[in-house]
Amino acid sequence: MKATWKILIKLVLIGCIFYITPFYDTCIQMLGQTNIKTFAYEQKTIDPSISIKDELNVMSSHQVKKAEKDDVIKVETTQENPVVVPTPKSEETKKQKTVYIYDTHQKEDYADGKGVMDAAADLGKHLEEKGIKVVLETHSFQNYMDAHGMNYNQSYLVSNKYLQDALVNYGGFDLCIDLHRDSVPRSAAVLEANGKTYAKAMMVVGSLATYHDSSAKISSTLTDIMNKKVNGIMKGVMTREAYYNQQVANGIVLIEVGAEVNSFKEITNTTKVLADSIYDMLMKGES
């Protein structure tokens, strides 16, 4: 007991000395300026208003900027910078059709530096001029693959994801087009007709897909219409044991426009015919 009392007396004496020295005031001042959160773990929370799509830079349809001038229209894209095209001279039809255009292999290019995404934008421009609403997929599939450790062989998994996003965001389309380019010699990639040189095109159907019958019918129809306009511009419809996203819904097609040996002028000559043919099929019901 004596030892305990001795310890208590020593502690009281130390406290008194501490109180009458400058150390006490200094410690109080430091504690007063210190936020208690500095000493505690504060759990970080995720803002519920930020979606996973936003974090991956996947823009929803309502995030697309609207045209600010009356003298232009835009091929609406899935990002914030739509392509500006001239206002169509012809009157829009009463019932507007909608088309979604994407490129599973976005890096496929042509002889003079431009690629399939440029071809998709040109096709979209011609369709918009005819009063058909176009949504152009412009997100970088490569960025998505890099972020998720995916490779080129998984390209269709990526395009499938963005295709389904677009179907949800826009409520469906009358036609979805996956635009590619072929890899063939120039002799198999060009057609001279009507004083112009066209890039030959070809529809491809995935026989394993759930909706391959729909894709095959549309592909056959477009092939016939285009060949009526420019005989020989379309090769025969090719069917392969694949899916090509044609298992997602009706109305999804794949078209190869030209090859790496074609100039972009040859490509645009063909996309003009393709747009005219899509218009005839969707608006006039031609088959």
Q: In short, what is this structure?
A:
38% of the residues lie in helices and 18% in strands. The chain is an alpha/beta fold and 287 residues long.
Protein architecture, described:
With 287 residues, the chain is of the alpha/beta class. It folds into two domains: 38 residues, no CATH class; 232 residues, Zn-dependent exopeptidases (Aminopeptidase). The strands form two sheets. An eight-stranded mixed sheet has the order 2-1-4-3-5-10-8-9, with helices on both faces. The radius of gyration is 32 Å and the shape is elongated.
Strand order of the largest sheet: 2-1-4-3-5-10-8-9
Number of strands: 10
Question: Counting H and I runs of at least 4 residues, what is the number of helices?
Answer: 8
What proportion of the residues form beta strands (DSSP E)?
Answer: 15-25%
- Tell me, rounded to a whole number, the average pLDDT: 79
Largest sheet: 8 strands, mixed
Q: What does the secondary structure layout of this molecule look like, with pairings?
A:
Blueprint: H1 2-20, H2 22-33, H3 52-55, E1 72-77, E2 83-86, E3 98-102, H4 116-129, E4 133-136, H5 141-147, H6 155-170, E5 175-182, E6 190-193, E7 196-199, E8 201-206, H7 212-229, E9 238-240, E10 252-259, H8 264-283
Parallel strand pairs: 1-4, 3-4, 3-5, 5-10, 8-9
Antiparallel strand pairs: 1-2, 6-7, 8-10
